[in-house]
Design a protein that fits this description.
This protein is mainly alpha-helical. The chain has three domains: 52 residues, no CATH class; 35 residues, no CATH class; 205 residues, MetI-like fold (Orthogonal Bundle). The protein is 67% helix and 0% strand. It contains 14 helices and no strands. Helix 8 runs antiparallel to helix 11. The protein is globular, with a radius of gyration of 26 Å. The C terminus is likely disordered.
Amino acid sequence: MVKSKQLSKRIGLYALVIFIVIFAVFPFIQMLSMSLKYQWDWGNPSLIPTQINLEAYKELLNIGQGEKNIPDSIKDLLENTPDLTKAQRKAIIQKYQDTGNVFPFLKYFGNSLILALSAAFLSVSISIFGAYSFSRLKYSGRSTIQRGVLFVYMFGGILLLIPLYKMAANLGLLNTQTGTFLALLVIYLVQTLPVALYMLGNFFRTIPYSIEEAAMIEGSSRLGTIVRIVIPLSISAIVTVFIYSFMIAWNEYLYASIFLKGYTEIYTLPMGLRSLFVSKNAIWDRIMAASMLTAMPVIALFMAIQKNLVGGLSAGGVKG
């Protein structure tokens, strides 16, 4: 009787886990399926395409698009005229290239990648030292500052939008692309630093202080202790904060839609995808392919560093 109850509970637990996994993964499967279907196959309810279509991915990644619109006669001319220089061949090819229907996915991808990596790196670098001061150093006002860093989350992003925009405008940052990029980077730091400080501060308190004392007795400085002891023992928490900061900057749309409105050259991917929806390029396979490629960096980041998310290395750091 007891075994049957345990078996039923186990089956119920497995069924619940499977349901949650399917519920979470199904939208991505649907996106992938639609991105691989031809237009005549969009009405097919099956998730398996009748015929695989990779044209949308090729267009977005600019694979084989240079010679797509070149007539066969011109191709024959290029192949059968070895005397043409590279500059002449390039000039001929450019005359037949149609750039008006090309979605600059790679440019937006690069803009988002630079912005997200910069925001994540700065957020982690600043929060390590700030969180260490919260957990190890004693100074007046420490508790007030520690609790006050989370105060920013009491206000919605839309409430902070106008004040932050006016501050950036008054400082003259919005007059140039570089200044706008820096303003957006600072905003992403404001969004991620409070929780980064809170997470790392709590984790640093779990590291036995005797390890740091032993290092200082051996002659290590405070900075050396942080670099050689605290950071290696906190790698799992640091990686978690990095992923969180990266995802915030990678997926953010509200501030980007206002700050980058006048600078299409530095559009991020969320802004680019929005422009794709309302342009003549708004074809479902291309939209779904762009969405899949947008999700890839975060998925790849998780898969690459998932081993560091299991736990810290401080367990067993001090012998009993």
